[in-house]
Amino acid sequence: MRQQLFFSPTLRDMPQGADIPSHQLMLRAGLIRQTASGIYSYLPLGRRVLNNVEQIIREEMDKAGAQEMLMPAIQPSELWEESGRLDDYGPELMRLNDRNEREFVLGPTHEEVITSLVRDELNSYKKLPMNLYQIQTKYRDERRPRFGVLRSREFIMKDAYSFDADEESLAESYDSMYQAYSNIFKRCGLDFRAVQADAGAIGGKGGTHEFMVLSDVGEDTIAYSDSSDYAANLEIAALPDHFTKAEAPEEKIETRPTPGVKTIEELAEYLPEKKERLLKSILFFIDEKPVLVVCRGDHELNEIKVGHAYDSPSVRLAEEAEIKELLGADPGFIGPVGVPEEVEVAADYAVKSVRSGICGANKNDTHLQNVHPHRDFNIKQYGDFRFVQEGDPAPDKKGTIHFAKGIEVGHVFKLGTKYSEALGASYLDENGRARPILMGCYGIGVSRTLAAIIEQHHDEDGLIWPAGVAPFDLHLLVLNSKQEDQYELGESLYKTLQEEGYNVLYDNRKERAGVKFKDADLFGLPVRIACGKKAADGIVEVKERRSGEMEEVHIRDLSTYLSSLLKQQKLRA
Ligand code: ATP
Ligand code: MG
Asked: pLDDT tens, 144-169?
């Protein structure tokens, strides 16, 4: 491609409103332009990288036995009514009507469409397993679109759906997608982790992983062990039960006036007392039964874990009026001592370590001290109810937990029978019995992956593409196009390098050399070849973008030199 004619409008200055490197660089190097909030056009340079990422995805998905197809972005609302998600999905779902007032949605995902497609076709065990995928545009009216294409309202996703007859076969489909994803992100040059994630109300145990690209701009927090391969999303990262029960103290329980002291922070300061001796109590309704969950004051309760421990999708925080009615006090003054019989008390493992604790007295402006678990209140069950903190032990008891920020680029998920049951997709087994198909779904944010690659591969001068996804392999520059020998050498190399199979961006514009070098650094193609003063001697200057290493190479040796350079780069990616 001749750069003269290439549509890649660059920006010299830092674009306004772009807060992270990938967004800034995509605008500066002319990969994208915003069309509306969270909605982008991809210019040729951006499209070329997307194509490369998509190509890698296609190769790995096909290798894993999946078949590509394409579904419509516009989906009839009735399908979403059938699955029960029309209301559940909330305002992220974009809706529209046709001229006959028939209702449609712009697909944020395709479980409904694919399940309705296969329900009449995959009706026998002989046709299973099956894995179908597409690369397609998705729509989500995100509350806060931001960071450019990292969280946009229209974005490109690869979504795959697997269909299996039994759990064992589903596990195989899941593992093969997990492996394909690992290959894909590796080939994209990404430093990533596959982390255990929250399966929500529908997923089976161990049935979902998120693929996280390590990056400070990530919105997710990963908890990982420093001495094993344990890694999980902070939301669900587990804790071991490593506490032994403390001996009861001599002192009996006492009341302590604490006027207006409502929060743990205020209480710790007022008493004063270390937070680990304070007991935090939170009233939940689980399947509409009141459960008071207690944890230590230096810990944070985790509602998702409470839901998991009770194996219930119906967990909600009690409202203030309900707390007052059941326990007789405002939220800041409730505690586990002397609760009515109908209120079950559960405690986080760490509560075992509290010897002479302090908790709300179920009376406003009052706390109790010298409180001891079991002596002064019953605990129906201990459990893992709190968020992990840095420095906690890993759940496999190997090593210590640390935190890292991650960008979720992919998600693999065992769906089980949620959609096949809702939409009536069943097959006949060997005995002629109808059974719901077991499903899995597997998403990759293709456009988000593009941004994630840039987050991990840039410097202050611009982009640094990993060889596997670079929009062109080579950037060929003619430093002074008025010099005939330079011009001629450029033209001939442009021709021969393409003949050798390289994708070449060729810059012989009538610009100063400095401008061309700056653009080359900004575009970040793996190798830059400059035809300059030594052109007459057949010598060019070859620079590797990533290392900055430069070498003068005679054109006779160029072919060998380049192929070994690019091979090394591909191996490194
Ligand atoms: P997030 O928690 O970031 O909103 P999600 O859990 O809603 O993501 P999925 O429904 O699992 O995402 O979608 C599959 C993949 O699509 C994600 O792993 C992510 O890479 C990508 N993705 C999701 N939402 C967006 C978005 N608004 N913009 C760009 N990519 C997205
Ligand atoms: Mg989302």
From this structure: 999 999 999 999 999 999 999 999 99
**Separation of alpha carbons 359 and 250, rounded Å:** 18
Closest Cα partner for 531 from 506, 561, 501, 566?
A: 506
- For the chain, which residues score pLDDT lower than 70? 200-206, 571-573
Question: Mapping DSSP to helix (H, G, I), strand (E, B) and coil, where does residue 134 land?
Answer: strand
Which pTM was predicted? 0.91
Name the residue ranges covered by the structural domains of the chain. 14-238+403-454, 254-383, 465-572
For residue 496, what are the contacts with CB-CB under 8 A and spacing of at least 6? none
Q: Which residue has a Cα nearest atom 19 of ligand 1?
A: 445
Coil, strand or helix at 191 = coil
Segment holding 168, helix H or strand E? helix 167-187
In our burial notation (b when 16+ CB lie closer than 10 A, e otherwise), range 468-501 reads bbbbbbbbbbbbbbebeebbebbbebbeebeeee
Q: How far is the CA of 445 from the centre of ligand 1 (A)?
A: 6
Q: Is the distance from the beta carbon of residue 406 to the nearest atom of ligand 1 less than 6 Å?
A: no
Same fold, 254-383 and 465-572: no
Q: Does domain 14-238+403-454 correspond to CATH entry 3.40.190.10?
A: no
Q: What is the predicted pLDDT for the residue at 205?
A: 55
Our CA dihedral for 483, 484, 490, 491, rounded to 10 degrees, sits at 140
- Residue 142, ligand 1, Cβ within 6 A: yes
Q: At what angle do helices 44-63 and 167-187 cross, to 10 degrees?
A: 140
pLDDT, tens digit (0-9, with 9 covering 90-100), for 283-332: 999 999 999 999 999 999 999 999 889 988 788 999 999 999 999 999 99
CATH 3.40.190.10 assigned to domain 254-383? The reply is no
pLDDT of amino acid 569: 77
Atom of ligand 1 nearest to the CA of 443: 14
CATH of 465-572, one of 3.30.950.30, 3.40.630.190, 3.40.50.800, 3.30.420.40: 3.40.50.800
Nearest-ligand number for the alpha carbon of 157 = 1
pLDDT the model gives residue 376? 95
Q: Which atom of ligand 1 is nearest to the CA of 109?
A: 10
User: Could you tell me the distance, in angstroms and rounded to a whole number, from the CA of residue 125 to the centre of ligand 2?
Assistant: 34
